[in-house]
Amino acid sequence: MGTVTNLNRFRKQKARADKRAEADGNAVKFGRTKAERQAAKSTREKADRDLDGHKRDT
């Protein structure tokens, strides 16, 4: 007679692997590198400074 296998364990392992694969795909599709985030932040901050510099005092 063979050994008893717990099918729940295999089902959960497959679910974890599927989630991990989906997360990796989303990271590639939507993720940005640290350099890209910093560049966007500095551009946004410069635009805010320029806008503040053009405001008229009343």
How would you summarize what this structure contains?
Residues 1-58 are annotated as: Disordered. InterPro entries: DUF4169. By secondary structure, the chain is mostly helical.
SSE topology sketch:
Blueprint: H1 7-30, H2 34-54
List its salient traits.
58 residues, mainly alpha, 2 helices, 78% helix
Oligomer: single chain
What is the N-to-C order of secondary-structure elements (H for helix, E for strand)? HH
Total number of domains: 1
Helicity, in percent? Answer: over 70%
Strand content: under 5%
State the end-to-end CA separation: 91 Å
Largest sheet data? none
**Mean pLDDT across every amino acid position:** 91
Tertiary shape = rod-shaped
Number of strands: 0
Low-pLDDT stretches are: none
Describe this protein's structure.
This protein has 58 residues and is mainly α. It has one domain (8-54). It is built from two helices and no strands. The protein starts with 6 loop residues before the first helix and ends with a helix. The model has no long low-confidence stretch (mean pLDDT 91). Residues 33-58 have a biased composition (Basic and acidic residues). Residues 1-58 are annotated as: Disordered.
